[in-house]
Amino acid sequence: MLRRGVEGLRAEWVWRYLVGPLPFVVVLAAFSMHRLGAEQIGLPALMILLYFLPQTKRAYPYLFPFVFFWCSYDTLRVLTPVFQKLNTPFVASPYHIEHALFSIPYGGHWITLNEFFQTHTSLIVDLAAAFAYAFYFYEAFILAFYLLAKNRPLLRRFGIAFILLNYITFITWYTVPVAPPWYVELYGLGPADLKAPPSAARLLEVDDWLGFPYFHDLYAKAANVFGALPSLHSAWPLLVWLYARKHVRPVYAWTIFAYWLLVAFSAVYLRHHYVIDIVLGCSYALLVYLVVEHYNRKWYSAAAAL
User: Are residue 23 and residue 105 in the same domain, yes or no?
Assistant: First the structure.
């Protein structure tokens, strides 16, 4: 009984003083950006709607980390030019580190995997990589809604880990800005061109095959060209697998694991990320998972002792 009371007080405090007011902060941020598109208006409005409707208010704290991330990611456009003046993006040094750690022998000299895939491509691999990149953004949200119906305590931990992973990544992006491989391919290893537009890189070939600029338009909205290190493309699917395996059947867990491997490969194949980006992204995901699960066990042990 006392344990439930402590948990109830904690949930009420978090709800009232931390979670509840944040939708309104996001709305104010959207207005201050003068970028009132569908995402800037629709998503904060959805958050507020979930907050006030009696039918959805109980679900709101569980879904909040995912919707809040979606809203706050766009505000990075405001931070990007500010931080790039404070921290000049690294272009040559990440390439040289990648070359030293993960290059392969080819044609009598050593090249990076990104350089190898510049000349070794296939339509089948292009399409598989395009699928991986198109679906990865939705995977975490699909798991969130699934756990909302099946396992809300697990969803709570997944949401905390998800938001921590993303914001630790954002901090890294702006303290250690790194140019992606496609940038080096287009602009070389010289000083960073802060006016360089985002690029879908190899995915532009898939656009040509599809007959419409899906990936071009998608990546044109990117908030930060120099946010390659760490790779969220590899971190998200790993975090999803770490939590999904706790609830879903083994066959589904292994499918999610295989999908993570496909995304990690695709990030390098499409020349969006170096291997070092993948390694750091996966390390972040694993670290956040271990920290959240450790403190979850520690909290329940303390509550059970009361």
Answer: no
Last residue of a domain, one of 43, 74, 105: 74
For residue 116, what are the contacts with CB-CB under 8 A and spacing of at least 6?
104, 106
- Provide the number of structural domains found in the chain: 2
R_g of the chain, CA atoms, integer Å: 21
Q: Residue 44 belongs to what domain range?
A: 1-74
For residues 122 and 224, state if they share a domain.
yes
Asked if 56 and 173 sit in the same domain, the reply is no
97-119 confidence digits (pLDDT tens): 999 999 999 988 999 999 999 99
**pLDDT tens column, 147-181:** 988 998 999 999 999 999 999 999 999 999 999 99
| Residue where a domain stops, chosen among 56, 74, 92 | 74
Let me know whether 18 and 129 are in one domain: no
pTM of the full structure: 0.84
